[in-house]
Amino acid sequence: MTDLQFSPFQERCLKLVEESETTCRGRHSLRSAVNHLKRGWNIREKDPEMAVFRAITAEEEAAAGLFHALKYRKYDNAHLINPKNHVHKSAVAPFMQILLFFFGEFSETSRVLPKFHIKEENGDTRLRVVLPLVINGQDMWAYPIPPLNFDVSSDGKKLSFRPQIEKLLTDQNASDILKYVREQANQRNKILYAGPDGYPVIEDLKGSFFELRLVRVMVMVKAFLFIEPWEERQPFVQQSLDAFLVMLKRVENKMLHAEM
Question: Is the pTM for the entire model greater than 0.90?
């Protein structure tokens, strides 16, 4: 039975989490997420239902780790997200996809393709965003410090990522983002409990199911590494948290662009 495969770069990111001396509880949530992924993978043939449950739990644990980082660094309204709330945690992966849609569109228009580097500087080894640039015909590298120390606005208002939310809903054949997130949160219950027609049985668990959860967990690991190590409250992190809370209807949409 082959082990679940992490890329060398993913392994380096996980090593940063393991070796961190932070007191943030989120570090242990991420370690737990990886443990659930590996254990689920190992039992996928003998007990596919519990393997799926482990994988879903891994994704939720990674989301909880991100929530703890936001609270640890005292971002505004971080207290409104609950690491024990399944709907809140299940909303993180879709929201990350929404942000990926946005950055994909931004990269296409700007022709600047951000990359991730693990870089040591002044004794600190951290995950950083690097922007490859060409200046006077020479290849240059720009490292924003902190990595998400920017914000994006339109008509003087921060973005709600409405077009990207609509794209996600279209892709998933859904009509309402909150309803979609609640349905995702209910997947774990469908694995655990019997319904009107019997109890759940999974007969053919594809390896791609775990590959997707691994990708999602690692996206959240990277997000954690962009947030927790930095004492500064980064504008784009706050902007994303604001949009996330509006998406979940935890706050009213008074400060974000209604259409952008």
Answer: yes
